[in-house]
Amino acid sequence: MNGRERITCALRRDVPDCVPVFEWFVDAAVGEALVGSGDIIDIVDRLDLDGINLRPTYEKRFLDDVTFVDEWGTRRQLTGDVLPAVRESPIPDITRHRAYTFPDPQAPHRFTAIESALQRFGDRKALVLNLRDGFSDMRDLLGYEGSLMSLLLEPVAYRELLERAVEYNLAVAAAARARYGLEIVATTDDIANASGLLISPATYFELIAPQFRQAIQGYKALGYLCIKHCDGNVDAVSDYWVESGIDCLDPIDPSGGYTMAAMKARYGHRICLKGNIDCTGQLCTGSPDDVREEVRQCLQAGAPGGGFILSSSNTIHRGVKPENFRAMVAAAREYGQYPRHA
After folding, report:
1. Positions in the chain short of pLDDT 70
2. The CATH number of domain 3-58+95-335 is 3.40.367.20
3. How many CB atoms lie within 10 A of CB 222?
């Protein structure tokens, strides 16, 4: 099997030849140390990961050396860290959101990253289209504080704008599916931390849940397999997400109190699971042997019967030791062969 076949097989809760491995993000410095390149396409190729996470491409207009405005109208500032800081969001008043125009979902440059990956990999790797289910778009359009306050103060306008955000993501997904035949979409909207949801469950189910289901069912209707990512403790919503049609839950976050064994018992008969090598633990502070042992235990819990993808518990960030990420991938290949765990 190649990487695309392994990941699609796992997402359908079947048993591939070995447990697939891929990451949402690998820090450029980690990539440079391991393969001599910070380009994610080079990293995936040279480490022989099974899939690559790809976002739509949005152009930037620089106002000075460190400040730029993207196509969404969000002004950001480079800080030297991985993510630029948001300085201004494009919708200052949610009650006037109808005046805001979303970027063109079919702009010629929108799928530049996808085309680059296709040129390198063809159909050898799983190309995972990273879109959203609405919540993170609301954060970017309104600002974090503005988004959370609008939930309480302007619920009708919040619902209307959220519907528009979901419609936009579905339009991008439809264009990518029609042009390139992509098979997998992932929504990486974080709505929880280690202690639970960022908002009350009642508010979530009243204002956000219906549009989450609309997003997932819309992706499914287009023919996609759907991965849902969210860090933290998602007990309040995980059953609803599964019932809404997701094919995979990620990352089974140890900081949220989850073990792979417990989540395999809870959901393994219904969905694929992805995770959960702790990216705040042994990947940062342990030795390669420590990481190999954690991988072995994770595979022992998650791999039996298929429906499992091995990854970190979030991303391979700058704090991860390069040699530990290499040990993680090598251990997955060594211990993740079927039918050993089938």
Report:
1. 340-342
2. no
3. 15
